[in-house]
Structures are given as C-alpha cells and as structure tokens.
C-alpha cells in the first residue's frame, strides 16, 4: 500500500465522488463512500458497477479485479462511521467554501491526528478551506478530473502551510490510483481550471455570438487541437452549475473579463439546464 494509507473515505457520492471511490477501491484501498442521501449512494454504486462492467468488456479489467474493487467498496450514510479509522478523507461536495470548511471541522474532530485530509475542489483556495482547522498543515488539494476512472491527471495542490509529509502522501496515493500527479501551489483555479475555464467560457460566448454551433466549436478543438472532448461537451459532462461556480470564483479572485460568466451560462443554469445530469445543456443527452 501507499505509505501509511490503507483506508480511504470519500465524502459525497455525486459525479466526482463516486469516480474517486471507484479508483480508490480499484487501487486496493478499503474504501468507504459517504453520503447522507441513501438514493444518491445507491445511484453511485450502480454507476460504479456499470463502469467496472464496461472496463471488463473493453479488456481494461479482469473479472477478478472487478470483484476485488467491489469488495473494497462500502457505502455509508453515517459520517462518524464513514471516517472512523480512515487514513485519508477526500471531500467531493459542492463548491461552497463554508460547506467545505464546516465539513472538515466536523471530520477533524473524528479522525486521528495523522489522518490526511484532501479536498477535490477545482477552484477554491486550499488556504481558506484549511484556515479554521486546528491542523491546517494536513490538508491538501487532490483535484481529480471527470470521468475519474479514465482521466490520468491529478493536481496535488499545496498551500504555504501544507506539511511536506501531506504533499508526499498525496502524491503516493495518486500514483497508487494510477494517476499522474502534478504539483500546483495554491492559487485560484490552480493550473487546469484556470486554463480550462477560459476556453470553455470563450466557447460559450461564441455560441452567444452565433459564430458557430456548439457541435462545430467542439469539433474545431477536437480535430484541430487534438482535444479528446470539446469545451462545450466537457462543460455538459462537468455540469453547467459547477462551471458557473468556478467562473464566479475566478472572476471574484482574479478579475478580468475572461472569467466573467457569459449570460448564456447563467440563463441555462437558472433554467435547470445543467448538462448531462439534467438531460439538457449545450447538448441534449
């Protein structure tokens, strides 16, 4: 196992949380997936089973690897039981600073002093998330990418207060999960979101200005720049509400028109067009 880590807890069974739980279980960690919503937990388990089945069909996993991953995975609707004895707790809840701070304060009261705490935030400052903690040095960013089982990158984000052991352990766990970690210092949007959001927001403005259709804008990046997925389809996959929250954070922290959310994004979120998870975004799913 990775140094000192055998038990992992993932908090939040949504789009990112269930994917993180899957790769943790596949890596051999005893993995608890926590969510207060029993239906969300069951839906997450169904998605994980379907993902593992697809991996077997495509020859990426053996039947034995699939079975071991499922044996390693344990749903839990009680937070204290979910984090009990954990070596690493990864938070994957809504992009809201107060929610994340309150969650980590609660977790910190229930875990051992040496437990590593990690946030999957894609834009909020690690320093601010860790600020209320008694031991802020043990919190790092572990920013995974959607879909988690397929995407190789993980950003390990550190603040000035992050302890070297926490940074190193996050790298080791990331590699165990078969990810390629990169080190990023705490800054709004880190490396990936800061660049990716600019591209996505500009693509939305092009739709607003009727420069081209969403499909053709995506094709331009897929065929012309070898992107595996165009920025608008990627936005649908991530969730338009998530993209909006990230853009608002970056605009507030960094300023500049390039981060100002386009009106088309605000309108779609207000109308409940959140992308794949709602069935409608820039595409119909």
Distinctive features:
single chain, 285 residues, alpha/beta, Rossmann fold, N-(1-d-carboxylethyl)-l-norvaline Dehydrogenase, domain 2, 2 domains, 8-stranded mixed β-sheet, 12 helices, 8 strands, 48% helix
Q: How would you explain this protein's 3D organization?
A:
There is one protein chain. This protein has 285 residues and is of the alpha/beta class. The protein folds into 2 domains: 7-185, Rossmann fold, CATH 3.40.50; 192-270, N-(1-d-carboxylethyl)-l-norvaline Dehydrogenase, domain 2. The protein has 12 helices and 8 strands. It has helices at 15-26, 38-57, 63-72, 79-83, 97-108, 126-130, 164-176, 192-208, 214-224, 231-238, 240-254, 263-270; strands at 7-11, 30-34, 73-76, 88-91, 116-119, 139-143, 153-158, 180-185. It has an 8-stranded mixed beta sheet with strand order 3-2-1-4-5-6-7-8, with helices on both faces. The longest helix has 20 residues, at 38-57. The radius of gyration is 19 Å and the shape is globular. The N and C termini lie far apart (40 Å). The relative contact order is 0.11.
